[in-house]
Specification:
ph1033 like fold; alpha+beta; 28% helix; globular; eight-stranded mixed beta sheet; single chain
């Protein structure tokens, strides 16, 4: 069961900025919460992440976390306002590929016919930032299958 860290963005513009910069950060208000600061220290390098876009009502852009959040740096040049606890990411796709939340109930085995809703499965509220979402292997396989760019393997070139 993979742990996947889901970070929320208000809009696609902010997602593109973070993906292009190769890092993500949280609001000053979130960073001021001692519980969130504590959870940030536990974000493992090498963890998988996803973004949830409020504007698009969709999951997007799987990534790998490549550094711990830095509590000594404030980001002022990527997004409007100041952003805290930045960490680096390697995006595995980009925000052009989305998975709408209204499709999750029929696509993900963990939600099909279950009393759980998508936001029971994915921790997206401001207070749960840096808390892992526990996904089944099958759920993660489906999400990745939709959100990663399609490639083909040409066996004649090996």
């Amino acid at each position: 069961m993979p742990d996947v860290y889901v970070f929320t963005s208000a809009n696609l513009t902010n997602l593109w900025a973070g993906v292009g910069a190769g890092y993500w950060a949280v609001s000053a208000k979130q960073a001021g919460n001692s519980s969130i600061r504590g959870k940030a220290k536990s974000l493992p390098t090498g963890a998988f992440g996803l973004f949830y876009c409020v504007e698009a009502k969709a999951l997007t852009t799987p990534f790998i976390v490549t550094s711990k959040p830095n509590d000594n740096v404030i980001i002022r040049h990527v997004w409007e306002h100041e952003w805290h606890l930045p960490f680096t990411i390697v995006p595995l796709s980009d925000p052009r590929l989305i998975l709408r939340i209204d499709e999750l109930g029929t696509l993900l085995p963990s939600l099909r016919g279950a009393s759980k809703t998508w936001n029971d499965l994915f921790h997206i509220s401001p207070i749960t930032v840096f808390a892992p979402s526990k996904l089944s292997e099958k759920d993660w396989e489906i999400i990745i299958g939709i959100l990663l760019p399609k490639t083909s393997f040409d066996s004649t070139k090996t």
